[in-house]
Design goal:
261 residues; alpha/beta; Lyase 2-enoyl-coa Hydratase, Chain  A, domain 2; 2 domains; 6-stranded mixed beta sheet; 12 helices; binds octanoyl-coenzyme A; Enoyl-CoA_hydra/iso; Enoyl-CoA_hydra_C
């Protein structure tokens, strides 16, 4: 495995099929500097390409998931340097992953940290988690999806409030508004998130991938073309061995043995 400096990776779960990525710049509250994002992208791509891995969990530590883009690193950026160097271009790696990516958020998920969590497919939170888009406090605006994903997930009024005030919201509020799907005690969060990944890992990886793509269409397109996409993908599952196995196993009252075919 590559030697990482800003993240730690591990393979976890009782079947060793969950890829765990821990953001690891604790002294900077996991501020998302360029090198960290390069490593994160590499780790996600490697797990995505690894047939033994069913799902990926991204986490931080108890104090911070990530407190945003690295303000010290970008302090002296200019408009021209941002354009020239494609500032933020590595961010798409996480959203390009075909496998489910789950964020386990303890502590701060602010700015780019909240946006990273929102790039993931599911967010679980520890009860001390704090979410926010505080860019407005430092004279800028969200730059990696905060103004676009947040309104789609929580609605306009709440998204505007979060983006225009810079105020933080706690885990229970985040759950109530649908940003987070479940909240756990701090010390249980990672274990519960890995359980979720393992549960997903009991299904056909091929069909999981199709299901993820179909749900994502709901955030990309109109209802009519999303429904059309869904129908085609649903019909398409009937061309797979795993669909046949799933239904045959049900009828024969036995557990399915999926083959990713
Ligand atoms: N960047 C760089 N360093 C940071 C960051 C950050 N975002 N956040 C915290 N740190 C550092 C602090 O500078 C401090 O370092 P040092 O000890 O060397 O001074 C250390 O982490 C600990 O932080 P604090 O002492 O401030 O800890 P507190 O517990 O007092 O406060 C807070 C915690 C409230 C989270 C506070 O640190 C804070 O407000 N952080 C900044 C949050 C923020 O504004 N985030 C948004 C950043 S802008 C952004 O994300 C734009 C996204 C655009 C797309 C992504 C681009 C890559």
């Amino acid at each position: 495995a590559p030697a990482y400096e800003n993240i730690k990776i591990d393979v976890v779960g009782s079947k060793s099929n969950v890829g765990l990525i821990q953001l690891n710049r604790p002294k900077a509250l996991n501020a998302l500097c360029g090198p960290l994002f390069k490593e994160l992208g590499q780790a996600v791509r490697d797990f995505d390409a690894n047939d033994k891995i069913a799902a990926i969990v991204i986490t931080g530590n108890e104090k911070a998931f990530a407190a945003g883009a690295d303000i010290k690193e970008m302090q002296n950026n200019t408009y021209s340097s941002n354009v020239r160097n494609g500032f933020l271009k590595d961010w798409e790696d996480v959203s390009n992953c075909g496998k489910p990516v789950i964020a386990a958020v303890n502590g701060f998920a602010l700015g780019g940290g909240c946006e990273l969590a929102m790039l993931c497919d599911i967010i679980y939170a520890g009860e001390k988690a704090k979410f926010g888009q505080p860019e407005i406090n430092i004279g800028t605006i969200p730059g990696a999806g905060g103004t676009q994903r947040l309104p789609r997930y929580v609605g306009k009024s709440k998204a505007m409030e979060i983006v225009l005030t810079g105020n933080f919201i706690d885990a229970h509020e985040a759950e109530k508004m649908g940003l987070v799907s479940r909240v756990f005690p701090v010390e249980k969060l990672l274990e519960e998130t890995i359980k979720l990944a393992e549960r997903i890992g009991t299904h056909s990886p091929l069909i999981v991938k199709l299901a993820k793509q179909a749900v994502n269409q709901a955030y990309e397109t109109t209802l009519r073309s999303g429904l059309q996409y869904e129908k085609s993908a649903f019909y398409g599952t009937f061309a797979t061995e795993d669909r046949k196995e799933g239904m045959t196993a049900f009828v024969e009252k036995r557990p399915p043995a999926f083959k990713n075919e």
